[in-house]
């Protein structure tokens, strides 16, 4: 577990993260900014919770931030098994797959050359087809060999480049990926369609949400999501933007992404947006995200599904909405119905009362009347756009009957 890793931000050496001791407890983690990085006038902070300073950051806040870069659940288990890393060894996993993380962060051993994957530039369709023959281990996150990419979350996914001809391939060398490709869930068939519906509906009513489209890769349903932590430079080249989720920004471990488990609530998230001075658009954007998730019945909108974006100039803004899944359509045995981030005293995402919204407004600094008016406006817009959105997704390959069932549930939502 003990060792040190170099940390780069926007391709510049930002500092070093290290662990001292054999047990790897949170107190053993340290991050120190590089002196040259601190001396640069245009240096962006690695995190809200790790502001630039000469004194090292020590303890759980360091461990929490870096471990939030790592995958979770079954995806993590598959990767650690393939790489023969102890499943609970966060530092070893970070060293193995942290070469490229979400946003503009890179973490890698100082003494090791940057890996050159044998599958760099490979056609994704062919890799998936080969995996179907039993050569890939069943997890799309393992399609690239050797492992070098860490994408947070429990859902299987892989970062890809969409070529001008529309074909999907793996990035070459340090080339930034342009999209995230997520196969349909093996546990709940149709999750792809539900997420496609949530994202398309949000964009249809004018909310800032990730762009996505349903696709088929080697005969398997998948969702292709355009990366919002990317921008196109004046030269036409793809540039990375820095990204951190609200667990990272607030110093919480990813294991506490649910408020009921001790994680941050909406009051803390709202206070963060205001404290950072992100402006009225971000303050309203956060509210719109909460209202929209309630209206479509997404009870799994936790703190890691909120994020900040940051350019090389250090200016932050609220990231677009993502992972918008109407979980009320899924069986109750699979998904908790209570909102992941508490709204008043509601215990069911499908039964939030006016009193709950008033309590939410007071706790989060919004005018109760404005919250109710915005809820009604968004609810009306959702119902108006549902037929066109479901029709478009059906033409793009989503299951028509599943979309109809989801639309019926969403259409009954209060608002």
Task: From the structure above, extract its key features.
3 domains, five-stranded antiparallel beta sheet, 415 residues, globular, Phosphorylase Kinase, domain 1, Phosphatidylinositol 3-kinase Catalytic Subunit, Chain A, Domain 5, alpha+beta, single chain
Q: How many H/I helices?
A: 12
Total domains, how many? 3
- Give the SSE order as H and E letters: EEEHEHHHEHEEEHEEEEEHHHEEHHH
First and last CA, distance: 51 Å
Sheet with the most strands, sense and barrel status: 5 strands, antiparallel
Q: What is the CATH first-level class name of the largest domain?
A: Mainly Alpha
- CATH topology grouping of the largest domain: Phosphatidylinositol 3-kinase Catalytic Subunit, Chain A, Domain 5
> Which class best fits the helix and strand makeup?
alpha+beta
For the largest sheet, list the strands in their spatial order. 4-3-2-1-5
Please report which band the strand proportion falls in: under 5%, 5-15%, 15-25%, 25-35%, 35-45% or over 45%: 15-25%
- The percent of residues in helical segments reads 25-40%
Number of extended strands: 15
* Overall 3D form: globular
The second-level CATH architecture of the largest domain is Orthogonal Bundle
Q: Give Rg in angstroms.
A: 21 Å
Average pLDDT works out at: 90
């Amino acid at each position: 577990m003990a060792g040190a890793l170099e940390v780069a931000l926007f391709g510049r050496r930002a500092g070093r993260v290290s662990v001292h001791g054999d047990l790897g407890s949170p107190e053993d983690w340290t991050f120190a900014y590089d002196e040259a990085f601190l001396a640069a006038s245009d240096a962006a902070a690695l995190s809200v919770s790790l502001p630039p300073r000469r004194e090292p950051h020590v303890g759980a806040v360091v461990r929490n931030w870096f471990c939030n870069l790592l995958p979770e659940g079954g995806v993590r288990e598959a990767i650690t098994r393939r790489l023969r890393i102890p499943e609970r060894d966060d530092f070893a996993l970070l060293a193995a797959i942290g070469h490229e993380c979400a946003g503009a962060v890179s973490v890698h051993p100082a003494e090791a050359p940057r890996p050159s994957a044998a599958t760099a530039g490979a056609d994704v369709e062919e890799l998936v087809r080969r995996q179907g023959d039993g050569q890939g281990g069943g997890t799309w996150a393992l399609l690239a060999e050797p492992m070098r990419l860490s994408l947070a979350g429990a859902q299987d996914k892989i970062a890809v480049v969409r070529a001008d001809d529309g074909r999907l391939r793996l990035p070459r060398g340090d080339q930034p990926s342009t999209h995230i490709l997520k196969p349909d869930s093996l546990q709940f068939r149709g999750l792809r369609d539900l997420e496609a519906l949530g994202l398309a509906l949000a964009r249809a009513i004018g909310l800032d949400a990730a762009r996505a489209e349903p696709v088929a890769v080697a005969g398997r349903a998948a969702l292709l999501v355009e990366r919002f932590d990317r921008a196109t430079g004046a030269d036409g080249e793809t540039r990375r933007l820095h990204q951190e989720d609200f667990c990272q920004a607030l110093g919480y471990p990813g294991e506490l992404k649910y408020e009921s488990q001790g994680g941050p609530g909406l009051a803390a998230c709202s206070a963060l947006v205001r404290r950072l001075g992100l402006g009225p658009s971000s303050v309203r954007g956060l509210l719109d995200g909460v209202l929209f998730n309630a209206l479509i019945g997404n009870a799994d909108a936790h703190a890691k599904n909120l994020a900040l974006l940051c350019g090389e100039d250090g200016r932050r803004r609220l990231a677009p909405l993502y992972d918008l899944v109407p979980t009320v359509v899924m069986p109750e045995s699979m998904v908790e119905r209570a909102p992941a981030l508490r709204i008043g005293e509601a215990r069911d995402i499908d039964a939030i009362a006016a009193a709950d919204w008033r309590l939410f407004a007071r706790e989060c600094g919004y005018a109760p009347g404005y919250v109710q008016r915005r809820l009604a406006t968004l609810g009306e817009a959702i119902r108006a756009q549902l037929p066109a959105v479901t029709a478009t997704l059906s033409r793009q390959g989503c299951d028509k009957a599943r979309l109809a069932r989801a639309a019926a549930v969403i259409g009954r939502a209060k608002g």
